[in-house]
Every structure is written in structure tokens, then in C-alpha cells.
Amino acid sequence: DIQMTQSPSSLSASVGDRVTITCRASQGITNDLGWYQQKPGKAPKCLIYAASSLQSGVPSRFSGSGSGTEFTLTISSLQPEDFATYYCLQHNSFPLTFGQGTKVEIK
Amino acid sequence: QVQLQESGPGLVKPSETLSLICTVSGDPISGYYWSWIRQPPGKGLEWIGYISSSGSTNYNPSLKSRVIISVDPSKNQFSLRLSSVTAADSALYYCARDGYDASNYGYIAIDIWGQGTKVTVSS
Fold it and tell me: What band does A107 get if pLDDT is binned at 50, 70 and 90?
């Protein structure tokens, strides 16, 4: 299985802050990676696919980068509605595997 | 707009079989891959497996010996059976579908999600 190591596991930030979350894959996955946002009591929602493509309707303050084994999700200016848990997902090989999640909390 | 809805018992006894159904509305089941994903309380996400509309499957090796995913295109449904359950199988179970971005048709491995159904394993 490909292990996805996500960091940090949690962070505290203020509205307007720039936030960066990292996922490292245990082996190369080209750009077969997505980023998901999950709010309490809700299903995850895809923000980024193919490592850097913004899904339609997702605000442009979200961006993704990386290829191979290291990937980054950046929120350029954190908004109140962005406080949530974020997961990466690799779909390069089976089984599909998620990072352990990053909880973004209000400072 | 496609919608997914999980249904099934919320309480299952240890050693018994968990059975869930996902009903798809708003789009035919053909042409996509249909996954089950679970999330234990307060924990992260685990992909259980998927089935194509033609019936080919791929399961997480950690659960493979206990999992069966099947599809019924005539009912626009797919289902999950997980046998010999223990308390460790207590989780929120999501059904989900792959898809394509509306603007540029880029592939999204897990695109549409159901709302999830809570399953507790307890005697």
C-alpha cells in the first residue's frame, strides 16, 4: 500500500492567514492526488484534483502543487468557512489511501 | 444532479454481517466506479473498495477477506456486505462515485459522496 503522510495533523490560524498543508507519498504517484475538505457532520468535498487542478466552483484561494511524492495544499487567505479538516487522497494504485487529516482551527 | 443515499441497519451484532445499500438518483449507474469509504468516530477516512458498473471490483487488502461489493443496474443501486464484524468496524459509512470536473473534464477519483450512514457494532 502507498502510505500518505500528512502534516501537520492540526494547526491554529487566523482569518487572513496563509496556510500550507503537506502530503508525502511513500512512493511516486505522479499527480494522482486529490485534496478534500470535511466539515463536522458532513461528507468530504473535493477541492483539488490531479494535484493542482481546482475543481469547478471552489474558491481560487485554494491551490495545490506537487508531483511524485510531495504535495502541498495552500489556502492563500484563510476565511471563516475554511475551518475544517483537510485530507489528501492518492489514486495512483490500489488500495486508494488517504492522509490522516489536518484539522484547521481558529486561533 | 446526481445524489447518493446510503441505507441499512444502524446497529449490527458482533460476528454478524453488515449490509448497506447505496441508491443513486439523477444519473444512470453505468460508466462510473462506485466506492465505499468509512470513517470511525473521530478518525480519518478508509477506502473499502469499489465496483464498476459492469461489476469488476477492487477491495482494500485489509478488508478483502470480509468484503463483497455488488451492483444492481436495474435498481440503480450498489451494495456493501462486510462479514464477521467487530467493534472496530463501527464507523460512518459513505458511498461515493468518481467523476469528471464540470469545466475541463479532469478525472476526480472520489467526486460525489453520499451523506453517510452510521453503523455501530454492539451486542
Answer: confident
DSSP code per residue over A43-74: --EEEEETTTEEPTTS-TTEEEEEETTEEEEE
Task: Break chain B down into helix, strand, coil percent, rounded to 5.
Answer: 5, 55, 40
Residues of A in contact with B104 (CB under 8 A): 53
Q: A64: burial class by Cβ within 10 Å (0-12, 13-18, 19+)?
A: buried
pLDDT in tens, B34-67: 999 999 999 999 999 999 989 999 999 999 999 9
Residue the block writes with cell 489514486: A91
Which residues of chain B are within 8 Å of residue A36 when distances are taken between CB atoms? Answer: 110
